[in-house]
Write a structure and sequence with these properties.
About 85% of the residues lie in helices and about 0% in strands. It has helices at about 1-30, 40-55, 65-95, 100-125, 135-160, 175-185, 185-190, 190-220, 225-250, 255-275, 280-315, 320-335. Helix 8 (about 190-220) runs antiparallel to helix 9.
C-alpha cells in the first residue's frame, strides 16, 4: 500500500537524521594508516552493495513479511550508505584548498550524479514496462543487484584515486564527544554556516518535491506515464548544464551571489511549468529542463560552499570538523 511504503521511507529518513551527524563526528575523530575516510569507504561500500540488493530481493522473496523485511533491508542500506556518503562528500575539503577548484569539483561531481539519474530514467522504460508483476519484480531485482555492484566499485575507486589527500586529523587528541558535538553545532550559530544550511533546506524542499511530484503529475494529470522518463531526463540535462554554467559563474562572482542567481532562476522556471507543463510534451520537457538548470546551479554551489565554511570555522575556532558539517547539511536536506 502506498501509505505503508511512505511510512517505511519516513522511518528510514528519521533514522538517517540520527545517524548522519554521529557518523560525521566519528569520521572526524578517526586516525588510521590509510587516512580518516578510507576505512569507512572500504567497509561501507560492500555493505552498501549487499544491503541495497536486499532491498529489491528480500521483500518479494518471503511471503507475508513484506513490511518487516522491507523496513529492515532499507534501514541496513541507509546505515551502510551513510558510512560512504559522508566521507565521500567530506573528501572535497581535503582534495583541494582552492575555492575555485572546489567549485569545479562540485560541478563535475553533480554532472556525473545527473548522468546517473538519466541512466536510471532510461532504464525505467524497461524495468517499469507494463508486463506481469512477477516479470517486473524480477527486473527490479536484476537492476538493483547490477547497480549495487557497479556503485560499490565506483565509490571504492573514487576514494582510491585521491587517497593521498585522505589525511588524518592534525591533532592527535580530541575533546570529549559531547564537546565535539557542541563544536559541530557552532556551524548553526555562524551566520554564513546557518545561511548555507537554510539554503540547503529550502532548495531540497522545492526541488525534492518537484522531482517526486513529477511522477504523479505525468501519470495522473497528463495520463501518460512514459512522460516521467522524459521529464526526469530533461530535468537532468538541465542540471548538467546548470552545474557547469554556475560552476564557472562562481569563479567570477562571489559564491553567495552565484547561488542567489541560481535560486532566482527557479522562480520563472516554475511559473513556466505551471503555465505550459500540461499543454504539450514539449512544454513539459522544456520547463522541466529549465527547473533543472537552476537546480544544478543551486546544488553545485551548496556543495562548493560547504568546504569553505569548514575552513572559515576552523580559522575562528582552531578546530576542524569536516564530516560533521557535511552531516548537518545532508541531514537538513533529508529533513526537507
Amino acid at each position: 500500500a502506498p501509505a505503508t511504503a511512505g511510512l517505511i521511507v519516513l522511518i528510514s529518513l528519521v533514522w538517517d537524521v540520527v545517524l548522519d551527524p554521529l557518523v560525521g563526528i566519528l569520521a572526524d575523530r578517526v586516525s588510521t594508516p590509510i587516512g580518516r575516510y578510507g576505512p569507512f569507504i572500504l567497509i561501507g561500500a560492500p555493505l552498501t552493495a549487499l544491503s541495497f540488493a536486499l532491498v529489491f530481493i528480500l521483500p518479494t522473496s518471503v511471503a507475508g513479511h513484506g513490511f518487516s523485511l522491507t523496513l529492515t533491508s532499507l534501514l541496513l542500506f541507509r546505515t551502510a550508505y551513510t558510512l560512504i556518503d559522508l566521507p565521500h562528500n567530506a573528501l572535497i575539503t581535503s582534495v583541494s584548498t582552492n575555492s575555485a577548484e572546489r567549485s569545479r569539483l562540485a560541478a563535475f561531481r553533480f554532472v556525473f550524479s545527473s548522468l546517473a539519474v538519466i541512466a536510471i530514467s532510461l532504464a525505467s522504460f524497461f524495468v517499469l514496462s507494463p508486463d506481469a508483476l512477477s516479470a517486473q519484480s524480477e527486473r527490479f531485482r536484476t537492476f538493483g543487484l547490477s547497480i549495487a555492484v557497479i556503485a560499490s566499485a565506483v565509490v571504492t575507486l573514487s576514494w582510491w584515486s585521491v587517497r593521498r589527500f585522505d589525511r588524518n586529523p592534525a591533532s592527535a587528541t580530541w575533546p570529549g564527544f559531547v564537546t565535539q558535538l557542541a563544536h559541530a553545532s557552532s556551524f548553526l550559530r555562524d551566520r554564513d554556516g546557518f545561511a548555507v544550511i537554510s539554503y540547503a533546506f529550502a532548495s531540497a524542499l522545492f526541488i525534492g518535491l518537484f522531482g517526486k511530484a513529477l511522477n504523479y503529475f505525468a501519470k495522473y494529470e497528463l495520463g501518460e506515464e512514459t512522460l516521467v522518463s522524459i521529464g526526469l531526463t530533461s530535468m537532468m540535462i538541465g542540471q548538467i548544464v546548470g552545474a557547469l554554467a554556475f560552476g564557472r559563474v562562481s569563479e567570477r562572482l562571489e559564491k553567495a551571489q552565484a547561488v542567489q542567481i541560481a535560486g532566482l532562476c527557479l522562480v520563472p522556471a516554475a511559473a513556466l511549468f505551471y503555465l505550459v507543463g500540461s499543454i504539450s510534451p514539449m512544454g513539459f520537457a522544456l520547463s522541466s529542463a529549465l527547473i533543472g538548470l537552476g537546480a544544478g546551479g543551486v546544488f553545485t554551489l551548496i556543495w562548493s560552499l560547504a568546504p569553505d565554511m569548514v575552513d572559515k570555522v576552523e580559522a575562528e575556532s582552531g578546530q576542524r570538523s569536516e564530516a560533521a558539517f557535511f552531516g548537518l547539511v545532508i541531514v537538513t536536506m533529508k529533513m526537507a
